[in-house]
Fold Metal transporter.
Amino acid sequence: MSRKSLTIAAAIVVAALAGLWAGRHLPGASAPAEAASAPHAEAENPKRAESGVSISPVERERAGIATAAVRSLELQAQSQGIATALPLQELIDAAATLASARAQADRATSALAASRRDFERLRGLHAQDRNVSDRALEVAEAAWRADEAGARSAQAALDAARAGARGRWGVVLADAMAVDGPLWRRLAAGQSVLLRVAASGAVSGAMPAAIEIEAPDGKWKPARQVSIAPIADPRIQGTAFFYDTDAKGIAPGMTLAARFGAGEKQAGALLPADALLWWQGRQWAYVEEEPGRFERREAVAARRVDNGWFVPGFEQATVVSRGAQALLSQELRSTVKVGEEEK
């Protein structure tokens, strides 16, 4: 090879090496490639708020997310209680004891009335020229006195049975059993069940005349107060009350939740039935702060009502009425991805 050719080849190699060095070390030389990859990374990870998530319209439609405006509402504060369905056999035994004692008292009263009439008749005849012997008069008087003692004894037994029933079941229920009243007939026929209800929190004064009981199927049914219960619930130190409710679906011995209004009204919002979800032991709702951006808000002290959830202190907003669980899953996935990228 000639000297001139060698010179040209060396110049080409030097130029190539200089270009490679400049591409690696000059400022901003790699910016276009990095900028091109940034949008791709952002597209893979939806924007995340501290307790929420942003999703695209396509993702929203795919997850079946629907929203609804909550309605401001005021409801009376509620207290909770524990209701126990009582066995009917004890009531039947008490009613049978009362009926037997009353029948015995009625028989003794009738016998007393008959023997007294007989004595009065013989005493009148004895006074008319002794048409009745002294012996016959004495026998009649003795029978009358014996029946009188028997009547007192029978009445005492009836009073004791009535006092026992009142001491165990209260005046209202004991009297209903004694006279076969409507309340007792419903219970005896199995149409109603007797509940002993005690408030699980501090309740001032008597419990209301009407409360609600959560049946085993999850539905709430009304219960009517009968009277104060003479014997408290051993699980809760406090005054208990008897209530009766429809017996359908409730078996003796069941323990059920009770709720009733107590205290001042609370301001809050009515949320759709499917708006709340459980996470980390608390209830949450997703609020749409702006189109496509959802913030998770805690629903403190939420309680079930007939057509949704009442949440005290919840501000008026647009909440996710369907698909909240999908949003939570998306939020948690985003959290995991961000944590991995920061390592």
Notes: The chain is about 45% helix and 30% strand. Helices lie at 3-25, 31-44, 57-63, 88-127, 134-169, 171-178, 182-188, 324-341.
